DNA sequence: ATAGGGTTAG
């Protein structure tokens, strides 16, 4: 399958090269703010770091008369942009203490500041100041709060707040508020609700604009539903809203991920006809698409092309190329790209390091990965959750269990907070090396703290127990899933079925298959392969024959592991070959 | 004249 896709992407290079890209140098608007009596304060020019900001603030509060509120506002905003959230809070407190007047602009900045700190609770606690000072709430304040709720994944709270604002007519939502809610929903997988809001807007007074359409189109693209995305594209065109570079980038990304290179080309020429030229994101999307298909040379050529046209690659462009080399196992080439990037004056970030560490781990060169891990802090960076998870997986893969545990301990003491993937990696690792007690002790700790209750984690534990000969314990956990409100998915059933098959309990396995069908969980290719291996293992060849006919009818086929198993069985007992029905063209693969 | 909130790539 990959081979076909690769050949489809070949023609993209000359095609892209045929573009002529115009770049106009952007001129930063001159912005200057001054106090009431001609004291010019240009916040943007004066404030380059936290010290500058605090010094300027101290100067400002001594001026008579005080600089105007927009100057204070601009200063706070500049500090927020520099992510000095704690400092913003203390300066705001200082303003209150000095009785410096505040207004809605100052307040909404401080509210936003709390939201960006992921302290939406503190943001809400500022609302009484509005009431006390007689400053009315407005759509910006509420929009900021909604965004803050989404940022902390409080989706229900965000939607409830939005609905209340509308129902109680507290404020009229504008395009931006709709956009915030729709983006929050779409990024968390609620594409249907996002679409409903679009339809609601079309009925109401606030008509959808380009931002709104872009959110909806991107949501469909992320769902790999390009037909729906393109139908929304046509709707917006019909309403006289021309798609822009963002729209095109979303669509191109969606098409690249589906390997639909012909359509990518069509879209690229359409956008150039509209005088919309590919930017660094467009090129990074194309480069990523090529890399994911193993065509890193073509990706490099697209990169040379973009540079020729005056579009400079950024850290993300280099990242996708590095990851492309790592995917092909050429981590040394990735390392060279990393060095070239540094030579060009682009500082690596934690992504760059995680990509390389992953590359080395996949090649089982864990020592090099560990060395890079050490370099991270030397550069003033911090390993994030992905870095830690990657290195732990790498350590388990080479059997360095003690070191993996040390890394986990380091996370617990210094952060980042382990997530669900971390726990899955640890549990899988323990079970893989037969450390059942270790695994169960971690699992029980997680249960007590109610940290992780997701089906994927339970799948790991059930599978681990089955593989370590503890079928009864696994089955008991499986039976209790509904008590903790978890629904088994296809993988849960597969690991249970495999557990039964390993023990020769084929009737129990079949009853589990009936159960999953009854609970409207459709068996997948893995389910069928697990059964075939079970029949083979216990020499139930005639049952296997019946089963394989059903399998072929469903369009399923052997995977590599079953095929290998079968070859071994046939070598021992050639007559098994006669028991295999011919699997015709119904096969999916 | 001035200031605050929304969309796309690893």
UniProtKB/TrEMBL annotation:
PPR repeats lie at residues 138-173, 174-208, 209-243, 244-278, 279-313, 314-348, 349-383, 384-418, 454-488, 489-523, 524-558. One of its GO terms (cellular component) is chloroplast. SUPFAM superfamilies: TPR-like (SSF48452). It comes from the Eukaryota. Keywords: Repeat. Gene3D superfamilies: Tetratricopeptide repeat domain. InterPro entries: PPR_rpt, TPR-like_helical_dom_sf. GO terms for biological process: chloroplast-nucleus signaling pathway; mitochondria-nucleus signaling pathway. PANTHER family: PPR_LONG DOMAIN-CONTAINING PROTEIN, TETRATRICOPEPTIDE-LIKE HELICAL DOMAIN SUPERFAMILY. Belongs to the PPR family. P subfamily. This is Pentatricopeptide repeat-containing protein, mitochondrial. It comes from Capsicum baccatum.
